[in-house]
């Protein structure tokens, strides 16, 4: 049993070292100050709305957002009419009363539609690579916001001494430094409705803010509740300290 445990420990250690080496092969993400950072951080609604536009016009061609319903977009400032209009741009299939499949326009209660019917179709359309769903991508990656921003803005020409495999692109922030996804953003790729200049960095920031909200929509409420709890505990600590001093002031 001891030998088995020892071998298991060696195997686990080797596996951990391999994973750590693969992750360590990538450069450390750029560190930015985000509006949602800190105990009082909040989602920048205007930036998140622009991020939705980037997702819809650029990212949604390959990446799904299956955990987010259209109706939740009111939380970042969209009106119910805007949400209804956005949902209606998507088409969904359902079984009618006659038992036959039929298409209908999307409703606010629907969830964002995946660009592919299944994983196999996604891989076939992307040279064998599977574009991940972005619903939880910020939470699924270490230092998620900074990592995603660095990845989106980090595409470069491969160094002369770097062996880049055919069909891949050089990005020092991706494990292995080569990635199947080509650079998705370019300056002026979208025209923001609020007039903001759509540089690569601006679009990357906006889509990160949007995806942060998608991954953690309860963040602002959680932080507000946390501050209220801390305030309550501070008040009660002071109250009980004063009560203690008054009750025991004549006791020596």
Secondary structure elements and pairings:
Blueprint (H helix, E strand, L loop, with lengths): L1 H23 L20 H13 L22 H8 L3 E5 L5 E5 L13 H7 L11 H4 L3 H10 L15 E2 L7 E2 L20 H16 L3 H29 L5
Antiparallel strand pairs: 1-2, 3-4
Helix pairs in contact: 2-7, 6-7
Mean pLDDT: 88
Q: Into which percentage range does the β-strand content fall?
A: 5-15%
Shape: extended
Which parts are unreliable, with pLDDT below 50 for 5 consecutive residues or more? 1-23
Q: Tell me the CATH architecture of the largest domain.
A: Orthogonal Bundle
Termini separation comes to 63 Å
**The CATH fourth-level homologous superfamily of the largest domain:** Cytochrome c-like domain
What is the string of SSEs from the N terminus onward?
HHHEEHHHEEHH
Give the helix level as a range of percent: 40-55%
Quaternary arrangement of the chains shown? single chain
**Tally of structural domains:** 2
What class, by secondary structure content? mainly alpha
Q: How many DSSP helices?
A: 8
* Largest sheet features: 2 strands, antiparallel
Strand order of the largest sheet: 1-2
Question: What can you see in these coordinates?
Answer:
There is one protein chain. This protein is mainly α. It folds into two domains: 2-60 and 130-217, Cytochrome Bc1 Complex, Chain D, domain 2 (Orthogonal Bundle), CATH 1.10.760.10; 223-252. It has helices at 2-24, 45-57, 80-87, 119-125, 137-140, 144-153, 200-215, 219-247, and strands at 91-95, 101-105, 169-170, 178-179. It has a two-stranded antiparallel sheet with strand order 1-2. It has a two-stranded antiparallel ribbon with strand order 3-4. Helix 2 packs across helix 7 (200-215) and helix 6 packs antiparallel against helix 7 (200-215). The protein is extended. The chain starts with a helix and ends in a 5-residue tail after the last helix. The model is unreliable at 1-23 (pLDDT under 50).
């Amino acid at each position: 049993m001891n030998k088995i445990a020892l071998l298991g420990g060696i195997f686990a250690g080797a596996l951990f070292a391999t994973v750590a080496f693969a992750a360590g092969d990538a450069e450390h993400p750029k560190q930015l100050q985000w509006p949602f950072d800190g105990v009082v951080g909040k989602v920048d609604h205007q930036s998140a709305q622009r991020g939705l536009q980037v997702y819809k016009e650029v990212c949604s061609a390959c990446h799904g957002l299956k955990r987010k319903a259209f109706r939740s977009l009111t939380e970042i400032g969209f009106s119910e009419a805007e949400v209804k209009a956005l949902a209606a741009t998507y088409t969904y299939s359902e079984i009618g009363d006659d038992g036959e499949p039929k298409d209908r326009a999307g409703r606010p209660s629907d969830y964002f539609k995946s660009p592919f019917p299944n994983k196999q179709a996604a891989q076939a359309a992307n040279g064998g690579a599977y574009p991940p769903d972005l619903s939880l991508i910020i939470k699924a990656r270490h230092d998620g916001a900074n990592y995603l921003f660095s990845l989106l803005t980090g595409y470069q020409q491969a160094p002369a001494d770097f062996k880049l495999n055919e069909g891949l692109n050089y990005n020092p922030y991706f494990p292995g430094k080569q990635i199947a996804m080509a650079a998705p953003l370019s300056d002026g790729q979208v025209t923001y409705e609020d007039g903001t200049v759509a540089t690569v960095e601006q679009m990357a920031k906006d889509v990160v803010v949007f995806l942060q909200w998608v991954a953690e929509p309860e963040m602002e409420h959680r932080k507000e509740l946390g501050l209220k709890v801390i305030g309550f505990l501070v008040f009660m600590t002071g109250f009980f300290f004063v009560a203690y001093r008054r009750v025991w002031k004549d006791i020596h």
